[in-house]
From TrEMBL:
The lineage of its organism: Bacteria, Bacillati, Bacillota, Bacilli, Bacillales. One of its GO terms (molecular function) is DNA-binding transcription factor activity. Keywords: Activator, DNA-binding, Transcription, Transcription regulation. It comes from the Bacteria. The keyword 4Fe-4S does not apply. This is MerR family transcriptional regulator. Gene3D superfamilies: 1.10.1660.10, Antibiotic binding domain of TipA-like multidrug resistance regulators. Pfam families: MerR_1, TipAS. Residues 1-71 form the HTH merR-type domain. InterPro entries: DNA-bd_dom_put_sf, MerR-type_HTH_dom, MerR_fam, TipA-like_antibiotic-bd, TipAS_dom.
Amino acid sequence: MGLQVKELANLTGISVRTLHHYDHIGLLVPSTTTDAGYRLYADADIAKLQQILFFRALDFPLKEIKRILASPDYSTLEALDVQRSMLMERRAQLNEMIETIDKTIRSKKGEFAMSNEERFKGMAFKDDTYEQEARERWGDAPIEESKRRVESLSDAEQQALGEEWERIYRKLAEVMQTESPESARSQEAIAEWFHYLNANFGTYSKAAFAGLGEMYVADERFTKNIDAYGDGLAVFMAKAMKEFGRLR
């Protein structure tokens, strides 16, 4: 049936005014209207609002959220993976800062002498790798650039690109038979995949590469295609890519 604006506001804890604003700027427009003229938010609208609020919690501006959600390359599952990675990274930093505060309190009480390095542990105010990747991931520019790269190749070059893809996957399937994802040989093989993607299909940081590996097992379409080279290859690659990303 759907929810009216007041019902959705009560469910989510955000104000009716905020929902009206999202409607006004075209970010979240109710999908249906009752015979009485009441506008209703369908399940798809509610799921979209969840995505909006996750992005807002991560300090994305509304204009940027609207652009991301409208991207033809947007995937809710991929977005959730990226959002989770961002939140995990933020949680780790907050835990370090809390630990620093606790140590500072103990230091002020004279329990021990605190070094200058310890005073600033956890205060890494640098660009967030995951956030930057998320902001760029669903833009039109990377998509068009990838298409241009492939379309600019000759038939022979495109064939060579496909053959290299096949070679890397066959090698990974072979390595999987005797090696763990963390072994030196596995990491050498997965590094080829990392460099192949960056050379031909856009720019991946190691963190984004690890996130892509998570998609290989989270999305059945990826898993099915990858496992065609060997049962369990998607899981193997995801673990190897996570290890590769950890060593950044």
